[in-house]
Amino acid sequence: MADRTKTLRDLLRAGTREEHERVDAAFSELDLADAEDFAAFLKAHHAALSVMEAALEGALELPALPARLRLIEADLEAMGDCAEQPSGERFGHHLMGAAYVIAGSALGTEVLRRRWAEAPEAKVALAHRFINDERLAAYWREMRPLLASQVPEKEEEAILEGAKETFALYARSLARVRSRPHI
Q1: C-alpha count within 13 angstroms, C-beta hemisphere, residue 129
Q2: How many C-beta neighbours within 10 Å does residue 31 have?
Q3: Side-chain half-sphere exposure of 26, counting CA atoms within 13 A
Q4: Which InterPro entries does the UniProt entry name for this protein (predicted)?
Q5: pTM (whole model) above 0.85
Q6: Which has the closest alpha carbon to 92: 182, 168, 8, 10?
Q7: What are 72-122's pLDDT values in tens digits?
Q8: 25 burial class (0-12, 13-18, 19+ CB within 10 angstroms)?
Q9: Which structural domains are found in the chain, ordered by start?
C-alpha cells in the first residue's frame, strides 16, 4: 500500500531519480558555450518538445504548457542552423508525469543559463530566446499546487511511467541529434 502522506512530487522525484540522473548526465556532456553543442541542445529539445507540446495541448487538468518550439527555431536560425523534422512520435502516457518533467526542467535551466552566458562565440549569444524564456519558470509555479497534492493510488504507476517515458524521450532525442553528422 502506498504512503498516503507522500505528495505527487515526492513520488515522482523518488521514482524517477535514475532516469533524471541519466538525462542530466547526457545533456551535461554538452558545452553550451560551444555553438555546435548548443545547437545539439536546442535540436534535442525541439525534437522532444514537438512531441510533448502536441500531447499536452488542451490537457484540461493541467496548466497550459507555454509553446516554445518557435523560440528554438528562431535560435537555430540565428545560429545559421535549423530544427530537424519532427519524428512523428506520439506520447501515449500519463500527462501528469510528463508535465512534471517539463516543468521541473525550469529549475535546471537556471544552471544551464549561467553556462550558456559564458559563451565567447557571438553565434551562441544570438540564440538567446529559448534559454532565457521565463515562461517555463511560471509553468513550474503553476504546477506546484498539483504536485503538492496526494497521489491517487490507482494512478501512481501510470503517472510514474509518464514521467519515465518523458525522460526517455529527451534521452532518445539527444541521442538521435548526436548520432547525425554535423554539416
Answers
A1: 15
A2: 17
A3: 22
A4: Haem_Oase-like_multi-hlx
A5: yes
A6: 168
A7: 999 999 999 999 888 889 999 999 999 999 999 988 888 889 889 888 889
A8: exposed
A9: 8-179 (1.20.910.10)
